[in-house]
Request: fold
Amino acid sequence: MAEIGHNSGQVSAGALTQAARDKLKHVVSKIEKLEEEKKETADEIRDVYAEAKSFGYCTKTLRKIVRLRKQDRQTREEEEAILDAYMLAIGEIA
Amino acid sequence: MAEIGHNSGQVSAGALTQAARDKLKHVVSKIEKLEEEKKETADEIRDVYAEAKSFGYCTKTLRKIVRLRKQDRQTREEEEAILDAYMLAIGEIA
Amino acid sequence: MAEIGHNSGQVSAGALTQAARDKLKHVVSKIEKLEEEKKETADEIRDVYAEAKSFGYCTKTLRKIVRLRKQDRQTREEEEAILDAYMLAIGEIA
Amino acid sequence: MAEIGHNSGQVSAGALTQAARDKLKHVVSKIEKLEEEKKETADEIRDVYAEAKSFGYCTKTLRKIVRLRKQDRQTREEEEAILDAYMLAIGEIA
DNA sequence: ACCTCGCTGTCAATGC
DNA sequence: GCATTGACAGCGAGGT
Reply:
């Protein structure tokens, strides 16, 4: 529960080699940079909704549209043939 | 609950002006583009974790580190904000 | 950050009245009982899948069926008329 | 990826025997019934929190309490299991 | 100010 | 045993 990496054997109890420390630092800051980017994009999305709202659109519905379109895309990508068989088997309404 | 937008008055029941349609299309596709971007960044983050794992790091711990650092940052910002408020209140201009 | 309830004013620093303690205990144990129930149901579900698997069904597909049926139910419950209007506006494919 | 079940050999392409259909139907509806039950329990839990809140408790803290108690239980069980294992290893029958 | 809803991130289960 | 995928809980924003 207290281990930092599986390479902990390389070091004397409780410490990391300098190389490992640098690597770790690098990894963490890279992740943090990417998370920052992600947040910025999320903010932009928020802004688009806000702007749309100021033009009179209902954001709730807009979100619903986006969500449904996404669902549809996913659904379509699924192996429908297989499901059809099962659906048929069930009787499609039950 | 039955309104399409707040601009529903502009149109005869069930339809939108061409301008409104174009605008709507534009908004939706912009959002979808941004969401795509966001997803890509999320995937990159996932990759970084995966790569780190292949180097022997424990991703669970890495995530914990990132989370804690984020919390710290937030806490620090809060504290600074409070401090600033006090300073202002006192008349201290900094 | 250290408050237990908003009724903390009722008590002298750091303690609760006996009544509050009893009430709290009651609430917590009720929740724990319900969570236990929930877990049991989840386990039963797991068992059904396992049993089905032993009869030669592909659990992955079974789960997919259940999920899709659920989605369908939800989707159907949504105000489709409104969405249809928007969809039409967008051109349904773009 | 294209198989319907492992019993697909029993049927001519795209169809299932009546028995298989019935069985499938049964399985799916049983799962759906259990999921319904589970949802009801989850709703009850939600209600308990809501009620507690109306009495002045901070739900966030309540959730934290429940979570911590759960962790403790798990930790204790783990420790006991380890202890038992040691006991067994030593030859101690208890 | 409260409540609801959606999103995100975490954890566990399943399949390869 | 690792990797993928799905379920769940916590958090935060937005609406009323």
User: Anything to note?
Assistant: Residues 46, 59-60 of chain A lie near DNA strand F (CB under 10 Å from a C1'). The radius of gyration of chain A is 25 Å.
